[in-house]
Amino acid sequence: MKEKINFSQPLMVLAPLAGYTDLPFRRVVKKFGADLTISEMISSNALVYKSEKTLKMIEKSPTEDPYFVQIAGNKPELVRDAVEILNEIDGIDGIDLNCGCPAPKVFNHGSGSNLLGDLKKLEEILSTVKKYNKKQYTTAKVRLGVNEKIPVEIGKVVEACGVDFVSVHGRTRAGKYKAPVDYDAIKAMKEAINIPVIANGDIKDYNKAKEVLNYTNADGLMIGRGAIGKPWVFYQLKNGVEDISEAMKKEIILEHYDAVIDFHGEHGAKMFRKLLHSYSKGYTGANEFRDIINRVHDIKIMRDMIESFF
């Protein structure tokens, strides 16, 4: 089987972000430079119980190639069943296990970053994914620990499960999204294991991305919140350009809007408001613009407004 992913160049990955990295957004970042896109986090439970909403979340754009689905789970048999369902769905190249989500409802359920507090459990769940996965790749997304930072121990457990690479968010579960990202810990994990390591956490622009790559010596970057409102960061990294024209930004915003309407229909205009709040940051007249779009429902009017504002 031909390798769809190679690390001859650093791999640029769009992080799974609940509520943001839906099919339209992934389609846009893929077109403008992301090497790999991953679904929003999917609960193994929801998948096994065939929730309609969950199955829609797995759909991908034809351009998403390679494409991974990320699952969360804490019971080996449920995780196995979820993997077997994904095995039957075409167009998925890899399955990623979420071992990093800090959200209370995920953590209290025993999934996500909870697994970092019990490395035996982490090994059991991740080995289950690896064992049953018939897709080309098995990967894991982790943090540095629950309260203590144990990047090397986590890295070694993940590597021992036979995964293809690991993405590490440079905070503990306790650090949520606010604590400073510990790039030294990412670097330590990279030095301790032999599989590729993808660095994640607070990579908010082109210069920061370059700096993190050089400092950690990671094999790639995973960008999540840094791409919301600035998906062109992937274009910049792909093309090695720091400056990006306003015309290019506008093209990307309109492309995103059209993709959202395509996928979500009429309702898409309303959904796009929160995205326009991010896109308009730093622009003159952004507040007035936000006030107006908050009341617009019509797809065509919304598009005209985006055209004239950006």
List keywords for this structure.
14 helices, Non-ribosomal Peptide Synthetase Peptidyl Carrier Protein, Chain A, globular, nine-stranded parallel beta sheet, alpha/beta, 2 domains, 310 residues, single chain, TIM Barrel
Please give a structural write-up.
The chain has helices at residues 23-31, 44-48, 52-58, 76-87, 104-107, 119-132, 151-160, 183-192, 206-216, 233-239, 246-264, 267-279, 286-293, 299-309; strands spanning 11-14, 37-38, 42-43, 67-72, 94-99, 137-142, 165-169, 197-200, 220-223. The model has no long low-confidence stretch (mean pLDDT 96). Helix 7 packs parallel to helix 8. It is an alpha/beta fold. It has 14 helices and nine strands. Strand 6 (137-142), helix 7 and strand 7 (165-169) form a beta-alpha-beta unit. Strands 1, 2, 3, 4, 5, 6, 7, 8 and 9 form a nine-stranded parallel beta sheet that branches. The chain has two domains: 11-239, Alpha-Beta Barrel (TIM Barrel); 246-309, Non-ribosomal Peptide Synthetase Peptidyl Carrier Protein, Chain A, CATH 1.10.1200. It is 45% helix and 13% strand. FMN binds at residues 70, 141, 169, 224-225.
